[in-house]
Amino acid sequence: xxxxxxxxxxxxxxxxxxxxxxxxxxxxxxxxxxxxxxxxxxxxxxxxxxxxxxxxxxxxxxxxxxxxxxxxxxxxxxxxxxxxxxxxxxxxxxxxxxxxxxxxxxxxxxxxxxxxxxxxxxxxxxxxxxxxxxxxxxxxxxxxxxxxxxxxxxxxxxxxxxxxxxxxxxxxxxxxxxxxxxxxxx
Length: 186
Known about the structure:
This protein is α+β, with helices and mostly antiparallel strands and 186 residues long. It has three helices and ten strands, in the order αβαβββββββαββ. The chain has one domain (49-181). The protein has helices spanning 2-22, 59-64, 153-161, and strands at 49-57, 65-72, 78-82, 87-94, 99-109, 119-132, 135-136, 143-152, 167-172, 178-181. It is elongated.
């Protein structure tokens, strides 16, 4: 008899526990919530977007050229930096979407530079990416802007002058999708 009594109490308690959970959530749409009160699950209202770019230059390019890299900072202001080493890196946080991000190469022969070697090695490479909420959305395959070994001195000026003004970047949609572009508005 005691077993029957305890089993009945357990079944009754389980039924009451399950029944009490069912009526806590509102059924159907509700109006605006009061300030400070929870409004239920919601979609994220913003995305964390980061643009990263790294450019690599051969020592011959650095020795022969005045190099600059231009980009837009997080406020949309165009910034131009002088490149002083064989590697240049920039990370920019994007504040609002949609947006276009990217870099522009400035490659000009140095004033009065003398071509003292018979041949030069030219390497200019860019790796850039868009990271949305921690996930890469871009193509991190290196973009070979120029890569030539043993370029004759007579051709080096023409080769490098054709690379001046090249742009690479991404158009980023409001949803965070990134599409490669060569027109970054710089």
